[in-house]
Amino acid sequence: MKITVINGTEKHGVTYRLKEMFLVAFRDKANITEYFLPKDCPSFCIGCTNCILKGEKNCKDADHIEKIEKSLLESDLIVMTSPAYVFHATGAMKAFLDHLAYRWMPHRPAPEMFEKRAVIITQCLGSGAKSAAKDIKHSLSWWGISQIGIFTGALMGDIVWEKLSQKKQAELTGKIQKLSRKFAYIDYTKPAYTNLITKFKFFVCRMMQKSIHKSDPEYLDGKYWAEQGWLGSVRPWK
């Protein structure tokens, strides 16, 4: 199997350690590709909308984005990690997710995404891990992913692993290992399920694209949906 990991920071801190614990169960059976932000996606999205209106190859950062997206589409499991910065995912993670706006369901979602599984790993000092995870989950769900596992860790008193109490270390370790086991036992030869919320989003977007394509057959998004067969009876899930 193939796993792609998007690390929301280059820092090898608590989030990195938790991610490494999660991956232990997969090391012997998976080909794992990792990206570290912002190194592997160093530029901000500037909102030019070229990816949406003209095609993703027209993005000024296409060389970076195409490489990472190809890895995501080829993966059986996607792992997204980020510590919480002011109650949200890191700026580098947000910048990366902005670059993939064209893959949101209202535009040109990749059919492969509807069959994938993902895990989000976040932590912070105090509260904020849940809202950081929500930032990432929002994009993943609009890419078409339904089966998403989430780990949120709340640290108290320090953000350095070695300075955490043994009790806190054991608590975080047990929690991440439980999530790891859950996803390690999955049969990845079978596609993930598509839930009703995702299907509802798809059908709303389908109605919109059907109307747009009827009025302007050359509009890129509507044309893409028509080519996929989604304006007819074809669906991206099985």
Automatic annotation (TrEMBL):
SUPFAM superfamilies: Flavoproteins
GO MF annotations, alphabetized: oxidoreductase activity
The NADPH-dependent FMN reductase-like domain, residue ranges: 1-148
InterPro entries named among the record's database cross-references: Flavoprotein-like_sf, FMN-dep_NADH:Q_OxRdtase_AzoR1, FMN_Rdtase-like_dom
A UniProt-annotated Pfam family: FMN_red
Domain of life: Bacteria
PANTHER family per UniProt: FMN-DEPENDENT NADH-AZOREDUCTASE 1 (PTHR43741), FMN-DEPENDENT NADH:QUINONE OXIDOREDUCTASE (PTHR43741:SF4)
Protein name stated in the entry: Flavodoxin family protein
Organism name: Merdimmobilis hominis
